[in-house]
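Example record

Each entry pairs one chain with its bound ligand, zinc ion.
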Amino acid sequence: MLLSLKSQLCAYCGAHEDQGHLLLRCPRARRIWRLIGWPQAACIDSFRDLWDIHDLALIPYAKVRSGIVTAVLWNIWKYRNDLVFNNVLVPAHVTLRAVATDLDLWRYRLRDPAAVTSLLSWVDYFCNIVTLL
Ligand SMILES: [Zn+2]
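Structure tokens for the complex follow.
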């Protein structure tokens, strides 16, 4: 489905597109959240609530938590733009692979070696999801 640049309709499903739809409630985003193992992400009303997802809340490093959430949201957004502007539909596993790659790079932002270890365990987690698809 190719939509006008001025369209306020979701390029994936044709529903009204806002941040909540695009990043959480769109069937495309829901698939990503389900694959990660966080289907509850598609049911929240506030992006702030993402940080309360059980698996994330258990991470003792705020920068790791925010890095993971940011990487997921960023890649959902980035590949939405690929569809809208380049007419390229990127499969979910590629999106998740990009999350793992971004997190692997973002480890250099961390100074605490324990936080790096925590982040790298999440890189492995995302890589394992991709290999299972
Ligand atoms: Zn949609």
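The chain is about 60% helix and 0% strand.
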